[in-house]
Amino acid sequence: MATAVDMSSSYDEALQAVEQLRRRHVALPERVYLSLMEKANLERRFGAVSKHFTQFLEDVRAGVVALPRLSDSRRPTQTSERVQMHRHVLWALFQGPPTTRYRRMQSFFRRHVQGKHNAMRILESDALNFLLRVECTMRFVTALNVSQGGHEASRTPATPDDAEDNDTDAVTVGDDSWLARVEAILAELRALRFYTTYSSSHALFHLLMRRPDVVLSGRPGIYTSEEQEDALQETLFHLLDTYPRPLERDPRRLSLAVSMAALAGRVSMAHALLQDAEKRGVAIDPSSFAHVMTASTDDAARQECADLYARAKRSDRLYNDDDENRHSMSNFLLLYAIQDGNFAQIMEILHEMEFKKTPALANGVAMLFRSFATYRAKHRGAAAASDCPTLVQLMHSFPTVLPRSTHVLSLAVKHALRAGDLEDALTVLRTTVWSTDVVLRPELFSQVQYALLVRGAATPREQEQLLEVEKLFDAQHPGQRHHLVAQLLNLCETNADVAAMFTVLDRFHTHENAASFPLSRRAIQRVMDTISGQLKALSEDEGARFAVDGVELSYRALLARYPLLFPLDAATLSSAIVRSATAGLADDVLTLHEAASRERVTLEPVAYKVVLESAMDASPDHVAEYADAMRALGVYNAVAARFPAVAARVEASQQ
């Protein structure tokens, strides 16, 4: 597999390695298919790119791709590898005949990309804007040869079949630099008389301002900071002048460019854009002037910006988009400030949005909370953590930007736990239940409850907090305590936490309505799976006994300890008997069979088979008693027919 994903290997070498893995029936991860498609694109085998993507889809349907495991309740999400596959297919289609190029790209885009959520949250309305957005996403910025004569194309000539989409009229960009790829997309948009979306043009401005090493990679020479600034400014205005339709100088697009330049510290470029807007009579958002004023480092630059603003105001050239999607620009800037990890800019934009009464978009709230939670968790206990506000402090400081909606409050609880701020998570739960009409999902209460349980020996204060969470849950979900327990048991199983599981069962078993709400079949399965995993990890000698916090670790002890939660029915007892035998607890097998006989429960045939085997191993002289008891219940013949080898051993022992 290393050869398949190694970028130093050729396409033929990688393909040969992949074919060997497929013959051995190895489940290949997405990155292997992606590597093949990237190598095919680099060597101009454009037909092979689409073939590998088709093969990938067929393998996904056949279930032979090693995909990441996801919960059934999670929203289907395309991974970043899948997004890059779409990118390579679109580039391969981009090399087709000009008359059909866009139609084929758009057909693929609608079938595989549009309307499908992806991990990178790249959502565009057409194939070309999607491709431009991906090219301007930093983690995807790699060398991709789209030229007619790139250096990678000379490694291995494409076969006629591989080059079936490589028409002589394909786009020629001249080199494989990032700027060449971007210009190829913009040229196609210009030919079609299409515009770039604000999200894709903002991504373009962001990468152009932030990554001069990528933007200027195709130009020779080593730049000083002044030369680099001039080269970037020249590149930006070259794009604006050469592609006036895709990059139309409208108020919002130019305001975004000015703000992005200022936030990136490129003040001279921001001033140049403001002067260009003044010359062309384009209105600029007042916030963009404020960003330039803040970024300016000397009085002369600030005075120049103030003069530009004053002239724009006198000429009524201030952009006010109250009638449009007013929050778009601020939210674009917030998303990229979070992506850059620039705390000062994040706080500046949040204050600006609060002043304008602009709420954050759902995506922005998720990214903001995740960023702050990750930082606080990383610097937990350090002085740096105190410099970063908690999520509760953020919500108090920016009530309009972060309104008390179900989405915001749910994310606040989730990410407060991720940050290790348990008190904050409790505060959000408490204020939500008693001060708002918002109803939170049961999973959030269980996550807070589990975080309290895993602390170990609970202090009186923590016991009060556990009771408080249960009361808060009952206030929002009356009569649904069994749902809370089921969610807690799910978390215990996920984390293989037997101690917390017994604590949960102890608390629920003493609940006044425990007898009315026995555990569901799925919850019982989770509990037994957790015990099975723990016994498997601990057992060295067959039949060894273990205890966790004074509680014996066995299925017999489990059923005896929690009679209100575990009904002694056929499914529960049969599962306990089979699992006990698997764990080597032969005595428990016979004890559980006796309990089933007392309760007059007819077990499943496999459980009777296990009982007979355990009886023959433990006391062969008493096997007849178990067989006669089964005959009395009328189940022995069914067991003998299904397991003839066991029946033969029983008959032999009775002779």
UniProtKB/TrEMBL annotation:
Region (Disordered), start-end ranges:
149-168
What this protein is called in its record is: Uncharacterized protein
Q: What is the lineage of its organism?
A: Eukaryota, Sar, Stramenopiles, Oomycota, Peronosporomycetes
